[in-house]
């Protein structure tokens, strides 16, 4: 079993990280892992629209995946569920790092 992991996308509309994610996903398409694990933080600065854009990129992998949110994703779990609508059954949207 081949497992790939990407982490800390920190996408915003202005920081170029979606372009980086696109390049990473192009590489992952060639590797063809059995499982892709995406560990938070997916977005920054409450850019909730970014979840839908990230979902489009993740679906390019054509494999099973698991999304684990980070502290930047913990502000609005419902926005994450809606943005990752097609893959939310595989996204650990109930998880995350909270303040202690």
UniProtKB/TrEMBL annotation:
It comes from Acerihabitans arboris. This is Calcineurin-like phosphoesterase domain-containing protein. GO terms for molecular function: hydrolase activity. InterPro entries: Calcineurin-like_PHP, Metallo-depent_PP-like. It comes from the Bacteria. Gene3D superfamilies: 3.60.21.10. SUPFAM superfamilies: Metallo-dependent phosphatases. Residues 1-80 form the Calcineurin-like phosphoesterase domain.
């Amino acid at each position: 079993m081949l497992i790939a992991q990407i982490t800390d996308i920190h996408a915003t509309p202005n920081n170029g990280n979606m372009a980086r994610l696109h390049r990473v996903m192009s590489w992952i398409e060639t590797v063809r892992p059995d499982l892709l694990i995406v560990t938070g933080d997916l977005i920054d600065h409450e850019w909730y629209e970014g979840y839908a854009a990230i979902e489009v990129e993740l679906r390019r992998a054509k494999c099973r995946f698991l999304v684990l949110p980070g502290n930047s994703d913990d502000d609005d779990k419902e926005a994450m569920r809606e943005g990752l609508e097609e893959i939310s059954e595989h996204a650990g949207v109930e998880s995350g790092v909270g303040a202690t």
